[in-house]
Amino acid sequence: MQTSQKTTERTQSQSWLESNTAKRTKCLVYTRVMGYHRPVESFNIGKKGEHKQREHFKEGKGSCC
């Protein structure tokens, strides 16, 4: 996919989100911190920055054993 096409898709999705703001519901994101789960919105500014920098992964098929 070309960069200009990605930019166009991103702009379209942003405009769709902005036009449908009233229909959206708030979603709480939880993360595991020191053995228990906490909502990310309750983090301080520094911890929120760390959370944004984390790399997320998806476990693929056949990754076991």
Automatic annotation (TrEMBL):
Name of this protein: Anaerobic ribonucleoside-triphosphate reductase-like protein
Its taxonomic placement starts with: Bacteria, Pseudomonadati, Bacteroidota, Cytophagia, Cytophagales
Q: Which GO terms describe its molecular function?
A: ribonucleoside-triphosphate reductase (thioredoxin) activity
Look up the record and give one Gene Ontology term from the biological process aspect: DNA replication
